Amino acid sequence: MSESEQKLKELRNRIDTIDSKLLTLMSERADCAKSVAQVKQLEGDSFYYRPEREAQVLRSIMQNNQGPLDDEEVARLFREIMSACLALEQPIQVAYLGPEGTFTQAASIKHFGHSAVCVPMATIDEVFREVLAGAVNYGIVPVENSTEGVINHTLDSFMESPLKICGEVELRIHHHLLVSEHTRRDKISRIYSHAQSLAQCRKWLDSYYPSAERVAVNSNAEAAKRIKSEWHSAAIAGDMAAELYELEKVAEKIEDRPDNSTRFLIIGTQEALPSGQDKTSIMVSMRNQPGALHELLEPFHKGNIDLTRVETRPSNTGTWNYVFFIDFLGHVHDPKIAEVMKNVAAKASDLKILGSYPKGVL
After folding, report:
1. Domain boundaries in the chain?
2. Is the pTM value of this prediction over 0.85?
3. Cβ contact 241:224 at 8 Å
């Protein structure tokens, strides 16, 4: 045996030993997770999943990570371990905006892991309805894109729903031009995708396929499915849709902005406790009078609260009435935030706290 072969054998033996230790430790962790579930059951706590606890664990793991794996990869591995341990007692059921192969499904897996049972829904309304009815534990819906802005349908759904926001996920969005085995690449005259994806790839399409018809469909997954039977069509979609429908990438990462990201919200019936790094979302109706917006924002300024988003939507209570959706850093259990909410409520005609939840860890 050569010196290099001997060295390779020693390294493989070392890996086998480490793997054996990892297996033992994962089994110990799973046993601890089952014990936690049993204690919660005795206390009558029906929520086995605690978003603030998971956020604290992942932050600690990334903070202590010394490589060579990067923080995001380490967090992904531990997310899967936590997901599998939680599923031993009760797999989480999650409704997402489908169909299969969408970015919302990818966000669901990123947040809950592969051990969660993810159920596709046709519309955002259906996601809210399934959670409210108790058919699933949680829902996940897109709320804003860094390029195209807010998803109005999601904001409007909160006006009527009592559900709480208990988490958020930020997903880097990469779009690819996909073709099937039947596509004649030199004859592509039609490109399918979701309207937002077409907008996010506008400049690339103008440069490479200026004459192709751009057809907006309900989802990128639907676009990927359609081109399976059309020889002159292509689709814009992500990795998950490409794998699901066995499509080939003609061009990768064709989004106009390399930092293109979409933020998703986790909705449920529970309130998340403080995790140490939290955000709060509220919905506020103001009286229709001069200076209303200034009055609304003044308590945040005086309280030195960091606003991360302010959106306006037409109210369903009357013409030319508006509702403000505001996100800011902090948790409603924090005394400073509670005082600001008291001052906002005094100025507003209606204040609805949509939820305080852990700030996305990735």
Report:
1. 3-87, 91-173, 176-251, 278-358
2. yes
3. yes
